[in-house]
Design brief:
By secondary structure, the chain is an alpha/beta fold. About 30% of the residues lie in helices and about 20% in strands. It is built from seven helices and eleven strands. Strands 1, 2, 3, 4, 5, 6, 7, 8, 9, 10 and 11 form an eleven-stranded mixed beta sheet that branches. Strand 2 and strand 3 form a beta hairpin. Helix 1 crosses helix 6. The chain is globular. The protein starts with a strand and ends in a 10-residue tail after the last strand.
């Protein structure tokens, strides 16, 4: 694979032309790295099985072992992919967009290769204009996973230029949306009384 495209996009003003360029890559089965409100993520179209396999290969894990989330632009179509009751929806509506991944029971609309053997799906609506613009332009969620360095401390890559140097021969696009954070999202089991599975940047207690 040739070097990935390096797109610089200002987070306060995501340019339509560059967003469309990245989304065209997604539609053609490409893999991109892009900013969120927490750490940089690696993502692809949820409907492209080969792209999902590539993401798993880059991460070095099997599809049924990797923690993949759906990046959504809002909660409008959440019931298409996850089973959700009214109390859970109200909490998510207050907390999102924000630094949370809500784990919910998956519906039959979730592509089997996307959820592998798992019966749940992680839902994210990041508070980041670039990520939201990508999903809106694509027209469906982006299947996403975090990028992280291989050390045991699990420090996350925050410098887009260093991310590009590391991944330019592995992915198709790296979006520079400014420095990222090194704290991941808080993962909440929404089907089990909002149990915190991983404490990250957000405090779910503020929304309960």
């Amino acid at each position: 694979m040739s070097n990935a495209i390096f797109l610089q996009i200002h987070p306060d003003n995501p340019q339509d032309k560059k967003i469309r360029e990245a989304v065209e890559v997604l539609r053609n089965g490409g893999v991109i790295i892009y900013p969120t409100d927490t750490i940089y993520g690696m993502g692809c179209d949820i409907h492209n099985a080969r792209a999902i396999e590539r993401v798993c290969q880059i991460k070095g894990v099997k599809p049924d072992k990797v923690n993949l989330s759906f990046i959504c632009s809002d909660l409008t179509h959440i019931s298409d992919y996850a089973k959700i009751d009214t109390p859970t929806y109200k909490v998510m509506k207050k907390a999102l967009p924000g630094p949370f991944t809500f784990v919910l029971d998956a519906t039959s609309n979730v592509p089997k290769y996307a959820s592998a053997k798992k019966k749940t799906v992680g839902i994210r609506v990041p508070d980041n204009n670039i990520a939201l613009a990508l999903v809106r332009e694509l027209g469906n969620p982006i299947l996403s996973t975090s990028i992280r360095d291989e050390d045991e401390v699990l420090e996350y890559s925050t410098d887009p230029e260093l991310i590009y140097e590391k991944y330019r021969n592995l992915v198709d696009v790296v979006i520079d949306g400014g420095p990222g954070n090194n704290v991941a999202s808080t993962v909440v089991d929404a089907s089990n009384n909002f149990e915190v599975l991983r404490q990250g940047a957000g405090d779910i207690e503020d929304y309960l």
